[in-house]
Amino acid sequence: MIRINKELLQYITELRSRREDCIIAEKYDPGEQVIGQEKRVLSVHIVKKGIVKCYLTEDNGKDFIQEFFGEGEIFGEIEVLNGTLSFCAVEAITGTDIYRIPREQFNLLLQNDKKFNTLILKALATKIRYTGLRHSYHQSHAIEDNFLRLKAQFPRLTGVISKRDIANYLGITQRSLNRVISELQQKDLPG
Amino acid sequence: MIRINKELLQYITELRSRREDCIIAEKYDPGEQVIGQEKRVLSVHIVKKGIVKCYLTEDNGKDFIQEFFGEGEIFGEIEVLNGTLSFCAVEAITGTDIYRIPREQFNLLLQNDKKFNTLILKALATKIRYTGLRHSYHQSHAIEDNFLRLKAQFPRLTGVISKRDIANYLGITQRSLNRVISELQQKDLPG
DNA sequence: CGCGTAATTGAAAAGTATCAACACTGGTGG
DNA sequence: CCACCAGTGTTGATACTTTTCAATTACGCG
User: Fold this and answer.
1) How buried is A20 (Cβ within 10 angstroms: 0-12 exposed, 13-18 middle, 19+ buried)?
2) Chain B residues in contact with A77 (beta carbon < 8 A)
3) Where would you tag: which of A22, A35, A87, A98 has the fewest CB atoms within 10 A of its CB?
4) Does the predicted TM-score (pTM) go above 0.90?
């Protein structure tokens, strides 16, 4: 669930070594916002190191976490491609290094660099596939299943991500998350 | 919620008038499957006319409908781009006309036709945005809100789409859907 | 008419949220 | 060194929502 894209990160790193001018490196502290919700997005961002969360605050005040992004994951590209305002906010969870590509450069790369173009197409396709599968699983399974699936994908989960974020990722309350966890412990320890 | 993409449809139509060999027209009857789940996908498909549903059968037997596609919407492109098996099945709801582009042709077009490339990038970005917003809204709102939102987006809803499909789209049971509908009628008629 | 599929409904059971109180932690300033 | 604070996590009781199950009705079509 903390997705990564090594191929893209490697290519971006190479690109940067050749053309330092068009890819900017930045650092963010935990809790710092990279992109705000409903803002104009002027750059595409790629995680070099660390973890960020991409989340959305609904009109009723509830937060929903779309995804956790790790190394090589890209964000802001949707908004740059379609010229829309950001529909998610993105915030650093750990200390995070980001590569930023201004949208003009991003568009030029898409036009002139076939490999880059392909990598972006694949990254978009992977995002759709991933979120589609996740959405479907969520709607069709109980909380316990969803939590177990999450833990299977990322065992260190509870060490890195706060309970609140886990609950918001699963679309449930913290109370429900806690109940499921303690029920699982009940099952495990005695058996 | 029945998404369309007129720009893409128009471009595909033009393409076909120039190069009839690489874009194949097909017809599907209601209920007929265009793509099966977990199958190899050898072509990209674009809806010329009609409505299809893109759905996923989970291991517990529950169906979840990812999207309804109308004119100009594309599917199968995720699998062709990433070389994965189909994660959704696609089935005609109405009688449907489809344009089919074999994957070799699709890849050539992506490489050699800048406008096509851009249209696909935008279509992918729109898909991500749309499904992300939907997923978030679903998780954060009550069934009634979700149903009303759906009806606002597509008022003819209940005439075209079966109750079972609506329930599967919303990720709820038919029983719950019926209760919400009758409760809404209770509210409307007396007031 | 008779069949199969889709839609409807009630009652009971299961699941989840809400609310409110309390515990733990690390950092800050007196 | 302690008191305090804010943020995070924990827990129980209760109310509400949704599913499950089963029975029944409505509809389209050969």
Assistant:
1) exposed
2) 125
3) A22
4) yes
